[in-house]
Amino acid sequence: MISDQVKKRLKSIVGKENVLTRQEDVLMYAYDATNRHYQPSAVLFPSHTDQISEVMQLANRVPFNVIPRGAGSGMTGGALAVKGGVILCLAKMSRILEVDRQNLIALVEPGVITSDLQAAVEDVGLFYPPDPGSVKFSTIGGNVAECAGGMRAVKYGVTRDYVRGLRVVLPTGEIIRTGVRTAKGVVGYDLTRLMVGSEGTLGIMTEIILKLLPKPEAKKTLLALFSVIDDAAAAVSKIMTSGVTPSTLEFMDQACIRCVDQALGLGWPTDAEALLLIEVDGRLGQVDVEIKELAGIIAAFSPQQVTVAQTAEEVDSLWRARRSMGPALANIRPGKINEDVVVPISAIPDMIRAVEAIKTRYQVNILTFGHAGDGNLHVNVMLDWNDPDETARAHYAVDDIFKQVIALGGTLSGEHGVGITKSVYLSYELNQAEIDIQKRIKRTFDPNNILNPGKIFP
Q: Which residues make beta-bridge pairs with 451?
C-alpha cells in the first residue's frame, strides 16, 4: 500500500483527474488476459514523458513499485501488480506524432492502438506489417514491450524488426533516447533491441520510431484442407523452400476446424485433420502467379479441398474464421492455458504428434493453431479453473509440452513473452549463467527493483 501523502503527490504530478485510488475503480486494472488478479494501490494516466520521469523519481525515494500497462491484453501477466504498487497506464499517450512518407518512418506514442496505426499509414500508401491477433485493441507500446509477432511474421518479421528508436524513461527517472531515424546506425550498444521485448522491466517507452514499408498493391488468399495432418505439415515445408514466401501461412488442427465451423457454420469437412490459410501479397500481376504456384505445390500433398478467394467478401470470411479461433475456444471449456511455442518448421509434424500423445496421457482437451510458416504454434490446453483435478492435469500437460519443444530445438515463447506464467520454466531454455547475466542487466537499469518486479525471472 502507498500512503495518502504519496497519493497526494502523485495527483500533483499527473493531475488528480488522472489518478484512480478507490478499490472499485482500480479493480479493472487488477487483471489482464491471464485472468489472474493482483490489486494495485492506484492507477495513473500520464500524458507526457516528464510526468513519468517524476513518478519514477518519487517511486525510488519512497519507494513503491510501478507497473507499465497498455491495453492489458498480454497473455503472460506482464502488466499485473504481482508485488503491489501503482499501475502506470499509458492509454492517454495515444498520438501518432508523425508519418514521414519520404523516409518511411512513423513516430508514435505507446498508447496508439495497432490497427489505428495500420489504418493511418495505409491511408497514405504505406504499410506497418506486424499483425498480432490482438491488433484491434493491443497498443504499440505493449507490442514493443512483448516483441509481438502475428500472422504476417513469416514474410515480414516481428515488432523488433520495425523499431528504429525509442524515447525511454529509465526506472530511476532519467530520460534517454535510443536508436536512430535512419536505416543504419551502430554508435554504442544497441539499447533499442535490449528494450524491445524487455516486458516493461527495463524502462517505460514514451515515443517509438517505427520503420514503414510501401503498401502492397494486391493480395490473394487460399484455403486448403487436408485429411492427414502430416500432409499439411509437409506442404508447409515445401512452400517455405519453394522461393515463394507467403505473407501469412496459418495452421489449424482438426479440433480447431470443428470448433470454428461449429461457431460460424462454415460447412468445412469435419473429418479434415488440418487446415492451411495462406496469403500472398505484392504487385498486381505477381500475386496471381504466386498463388497458382502455391496451389500447385499443395496439390501434390493430397488436399481434400483447395479454395482461392475470388472476392473481398470471401477473403474477409476466411480471415474472420481465423480471427474467431480464440473466442470460439470458449465453446470447448470455460478456461484455457494458451502457450505460444516455436519449433523449427521441419519439426511441426513431430510437435503435433507429441501434443496428441500428451492430450491422451493427461486426458485434457488440447487445440493447436498458429503461424505454421515460422513454426509458431499456439497450443491451447482447455480446462475449467474450478476443477482442481483438471487444472493439475493441464499444468502437467504444459510442462510436457515445453520439454518437447526444447527437445525439438524450439523456444518456449514466440510472441507472448515470459511474464509470470512462464518464469518457472525459464531454466528449461536458459542455463544459470544466461539467467544471471540478465538479472545483472536488470539490476543495472533498476537498482531498487521497482519497475515491474516479479516478472521474467523465477
A: 66
Report the DSSP beta bridge partners of residue 278: 222, 249
Compute the CA torsion angle 70, 71, 77, 82 (nearest 10 deg): 60
pLDDT band of residue 270 (cuts 50, 70, 90) is confident
Count how many domains the chain has. 4
200 and 250 housed in the same domain: no
State how far the Cα of 424 lies from the Cα of 442, in Å rounded to an integer.
18
pLDDT tens-digit profile of 174-220?
999 999 999 999 999 999 999 999 999 999 999 999 999 999 999 99
Q: Is residue 313, in this structure, part of any structural domain at all?
A: yes
Three-state secondary structure call for residue 123: coil
Domain boundary among 156, 191, 214: 214
Q: What is the predicted pLDDT for the residue at 331? A: 84
What residue has cell string 509437409?
Answer: 234
The beta strands (E) that lie in 75-198 are given as 86-89, 96-100, 105-108, 126-127, 163-169, 175-179
Within-domain flag for 450: no
Q: Contact, 100 vs 88, CB < 8 A? A: no
Distance CA 291, CA 221 (A): 8
DSSP state at residue 150: B
Q: Is the pTM of this model over 0.90?
A: yes
Tell me: do 71 and 159 sit in the same domain: no
Q: Is 458 a member of any domain?
A: no
Q: Is residue 101 part of a domain?
A: yes
* pLDDT tens for each residue of 75-130: 999 999 999 999 999 999 999 999 999 999 999 999 999 999 999 999 999 999 99
Task: Compute the CA torsion angle 268, 271, 274, 275 (nearest 10 deg).
Answer: -10
> 71 and 50 in one domain?
yes
Confirm if 163 and 179 have CB atoms less than 8 A apart: yes
Among all chains, which residue has been given the C-alpha cell 519520404? 102
pLDDT tens for each residue of 274-321: 999 999 999 999 999 999 999 999 999 999 999 999 999 999 888 888
DSSP letter for each residue of 353-394: HHHHHHHHHHT-EEEEEEEGGGTEEEEEEEE-TT-HHHHHHH
State which of 191, 214, 237 marks the end of a domain.
214
Nearest to 135 by CA among 322, 309, 295: 322
Same domain, 152 and 137: yes
Residues of the domain holding 76: 4-89
Residues 117 and 227 in one domain: no
Q: How confident is the model at residue 135 (pLDDT cuts 50, 70, 90)?
A: very high
